[in-house]
Amino acid sequence: MNISYPILKRSQFNTGYAFFIGLVLVFLSFDIFAQTDTNVRNSVQSSAKANQQLSDIQQAINQQKLTLLSTNVEISDLEQQLKTDDIAIGKIARNLANTSSSLTKTRQKLDQLSSEKKQLALAKKQQEQILAKQLRAAYSTGHHDYIKLILNQEKPSNVQRTITHYQYLNAARIEEIKAFKSTITQLNDVSAQYQQQAEQLTQLTQTQSQQKQLLELSKTKQKQTLKALNTKALTEQQKLAKLEREESALVALLKKMAAAAQKVENLVGLSTLKRQLTWPVKGRIRHSFGSSKQGYLKWKGVFLSAPIGRQVKTIHNGTILFSDWLKGYGLVLVVDHGDGYMSLYGHNQALLKAVGDRVEAGEPIALVGQSGGQANSGLYFEIRHTGIAVNPKLWCK
Question: Which neighbouring-strand residues pair with 336?
């Protein structure tokens, strides 16, 4: 059996094939359009997300800038408060030192008056005993003995002499008693006045001590806050920059002081006194000259650990060129010794001398402290020659 298939004409075949291809292209176009639409949507979403991320980052940056600005303002305020506290504590400590000196002098005067009072009281007692003995003798013999004594005189001149002698003894005795009573009364009054003054000074000392304790507590709390803020806000590079600024300020100050020192006369300097000077305060050297301070910065002097309130003494004769608060160094004294030599004493609790004062070697000029934000109590000490820091160990023993 023969099977016959329909035979298509060429024109019919071409038409069918074209129709088939068209259907395929239609389906493909639908898929391409779908994929393109998806890509567009994804691209738009990614762009929006990126813009949002950028906006968030910019907002975070702005917020951080505001936070840092606020922190810097707080740090600046705290540093100013630190200066105020340092100066206030210095004033109180200086007043306390003056009060202690006044108390010592008052006690010495009271001791002296007490000794004089005892001596006068003893003399008065002895005199009273003598007078009592004389009165008893006079009473037991009676007044007629005195008359009889006069009448028994053989010569008239002896009579007059005897009368004069008795009158003199009585008058002297009376005046002596009056003088003793007056002296004792005066001493009692003076002693009472000094006692009252001593009590007032003691009360003043107690009041100032309480104020000092309150300021120390406030300063400790403030320093803790300052330390926390510095830890949060300052990087190592920023700390280095801060120290550089403080050092530059100190160098500028010393140059200014050196210029002023040229006008001071009768000072011969320290060139001939190597290994002969005494350290300004007794204490352990915590930081040595030339040791590392921060980054490439080195210590230009020494830091001597010592308890708060210990006396700081000048190393040699000189004139006070600077007596004030300096950022990073607290309460500072600079002494000119002549011939381009100067000594600097920093982080003091109180300054006992003013600009222009002449000081002698070993004279107290300040009290040890920890002003200027110093964590530990002690003295920062420098010696400079023509503005250049030199090792204090070459001069002090």
Answer: 319, 342
CB 333 within 8 A of CB 323: yes
Give the closest residue to 84 by CA, choosing from 331, 308, 365: 331
Do 174 and 245 fall within a single domain?
A: no
Give the domain extent around 304: 236-394
Inter-CA distances, 304 with 106, 289, 313, 385, Å: 34, 11, 13, 21
Contacts of 324 (CB under 8 A, 6+ apart): 331, 332, 351
What is the tens place of the pLDDT at every residue in 196-206?
Answer: 877 877 887 78
Rounded (5°) CA angle 139-145-148: 165
Phi–psi pair at 91, nearest 5 degrees: -65, -45
**Considering its fold, how many domains does the chain have in total?**
2
Nearest partner of 89 among 211, 257, 222, judged by Cα: 211
Q: Which pair of structure tokens corresponds to residue 287?
A: 């930081």
- Count CB neighbours of 386 within 10 A: 10
**What would the pLDDT profile of 316-339 be if each residue is shown by its tens digit?**
999 999 999 988 899 999 999 998
- Residue 269 in tokens: 């300097």
For the whole model, what pTM was predicted?
A: 0.63
CA angle (204, 210, 213) in 5-degree steps: 140
Instruction: Decide if 41 is inside a domain.
Output: no
Residue 79 sits in a domain whose CATH number is 1.10.287
Q: Which residues pair with 348 in a beta bridge?
A: 331, 368
